[in-house]
Amino acid sequence: MKDVKSPASKNTTPGKGGLNAEIQSRIGHQLRAMYDDVVRQGVPERFAELIRKLDVPEDISQVGDNGGSNEQNGRE
Amino acid sequence: MPLTESLRDDILASVPSLRAFAISLSGNGDRADDLVQETLLRALANIDSFQPGSNLPAWLFTILRNLFRSDYRKRRREVEDAEGNYAKTLKTQPAQNAHLEFEEFRVALDKLPQDQREALILVGASGFSYEDAAAICGCAVGTIKSRVNRARSKLAALLYVDGAEDFGPDETVRAVIGGNG
């Protein structure tokens, strides 16, 4: 286990693993912000198209609104 | 199990987090989307091996992670690429200050060993349990825990050297970001 710089005396009580709890939460926050930024972009058309085009066995599927097929350009 | 409509919808619903995972791993938006595409194709081709009722996101993440790993062995990722391209994948550009902080974080994350980075992302961002993350990475739960801890320690050392009140990047990180500092 690697030692983070020994906590300076000005610091309040170090959390688990010698890490200040506030730093821990800041890291967690940054990580999720980065990640969620991408999640919020939703499903790019490229993937929606790819999955939509797949055949589902007939007895289960009755894709009603499959009429408006605008797959003129599947890929950019 | 066969591909049902609801399974297809579930796969579709997993795409945003698969992309986030792929971008976090590779640091490169274009490559990440190729990785997601390959993951989806592989998942669909092997859909019969998916156990109904088991954790679909974990199954998909496992495929993506393995693809990334085999790809990673072939070509080493380029750090400079990660810096520039990641920002471009974002639709909403953070404000100036937040953006810089964000880049610093990204660069620091890239410095982590592969094992630690993926463990941290799976647990800290994707929200998987330690058990699921261990299954995805094919290792013991204890191993995941220690990787996550080491990842956090290292990030803290890189980003917040002297503690929370000292909120500047360290010299190495600054040099990497600025290039001319």
Q: Roughly what percent helix of chain B? A: over 70%
Q: What's the tally of helices of chain B?
A: 9
Mean pLDDT of chain B: 82
* CA-CA gap between termini of chain A: 47 Å
Distance between the termini of chain B: 56 Å
Shape of chain B: globular
Mind sketching the topology for me?
The complex is a heterodimer of chains A (76) and B (181).
Chain A: H1 21-39, H2 45-52
Chain B: H1 5-26, H2 29-45, H3 56-74, H4 79-88, H5 96-111, H6 114-124, H7 130-137, H8 141-159, H9 171-178
Core attributes:
heterodimer; A: 76 residues; mainly alpha; disordered N terminus; B: 181 residues; Arc Repressor Mutant, subunit A; 9 helices
Describe what this molecule looks like in 3D:
The complex is a heterodimer of chains A (76) and B (181). By secondary structure, chain A is mostly helical. In chain A, 36% of the residues lie in helices and 0% in strands. Chain A has a domain of 37 residues. Chain A is built from two helices and no strands. The longest helix of chain A has 19 residues. The two termini of chain A are 47 Å apart. The relative contact order of chain A is 0.08. With 181 residues, chain B is mainly α. Chain B has two domains: 89 residues, Rna Polymerase Sigma Factor, Chain: A, CATH 1.10.1740; 90 residues, Winged helix-like DNA-binding domain superfamily/Winged helix DNA-binding domain (Arc Repressor Mutant, subunit A). Chain B has nine helices and no strands.
